[in-house]
Amino acid sequence: MVKVVGIAGSLRADSYSQMALKVAAQRVQALGAEVEILDLRQMELPFCDGRDEYPDFPDVKRLQDAFQKADGLILATPEYHGSVSGVLKNALDLMSFDQLSGKVAGLISVLGGQSNSNALNDLRIIMRWVHGWVIPEQVAIGQAWQAFGSDGKLLDDKLSQRFDQFAQSLVDNTRKLRGVN
Ligand SMILES: Cc1cc2nc3c(=O)[nH]c(=O)nc-3n(C[C@H](O)[C@H](O)[C@H](O)COP(=O)(O)O)c2cc1C
User: Is 78 in the pocket of ligand 1 (CB under 6 A)?
Assistant: First the structure.
């Protein structure tokens, strides 16, 4: 079975990136994959300082182990100053080729302003650098404050369809590239 792990790079209580990650995870699960969401708001992660191990922070190992076991990744980021949030970048910096190489990744960004691809393009470069395979389908949610209902569901049908295509591509391509069902 395809194993997917997802993280979102916002620590905000009512984060739309976390909501978007949840929507994507549900769609991917519906296609028969096993999905684990690691909520970075509930984890204690230090800033990466280049060490191999962080014995005082067991959540680093938890993060690394979950990514190492996964075939596919869902990475959701708020757009912060035209790029990936520091929270997501730091979580990725705490990992290395062992956890990230060869993994198939789907990328989502969430913005307060108009939808664009800035953070997604930067995230694509980061994933290329660690030899991940990023699927071409991606989702950018502009003006995220009006994208979700109070139940966390997407309000726009077209955006919802985009999540379906994103999930289908992530599961199909993970199966192909990782040789798993
Ligand atoms: C430090 C910071 C920088 C931001 N930069 C941008 C930006 O460059 N473009 C944009 O559209 N929104 C920007 N925003 C707005 C956030 O993308 C928006 O509030 C988003 O919903 C935050 O994600 P979250 O809901 O997951 O916390 C910024 C917000 C913060 C706190």
Answer: yes
Q: Name the residue of 17, 111, 117, 146 whose CB sits within 8 Å of the most ligand 1 atoms, as the mutation to test its pocket.
A: 111
Q: Spell out the domains of the chain, with CATH numbers in brackets.
A: 3-178 (3.40.50.360)
SS3 for the chain, per residue?
CCEEEEEECCCCCCCHHHHHHHHHHHHHHHCCCEEEECCHHHCCCCCCCCCCCCCCCHHHHHHHHHHHHCCEEEEEEEEECCEECHHHHHHHHCCCHHHHCCCEEEEEEECCCCCCCHHHHHHHHHHHHCCCEEEEEEEEECCHHHCECCCCCECCHHHHHHHHHHHHHHHHHHHHHHCCC
Residue nearest ligand 1's atom 30 by CA? 80
Ligand 1 contact, 104 CB (< 6 A): no
The CB of 9 under 6 Å from ligand 1? The reply is no
What is the per-residue pLDDT across 121-168, written as a single tens digit (0 to 9) for each?
Answer: 999 999 999 999 999 999 999 999 999 999 999 999 999 999 999 999
Per residue in 17-66, pLDDT (tens digit) is 999 999 999 999 999 999 999 999 999 999 999 999 999 999 999 999 99
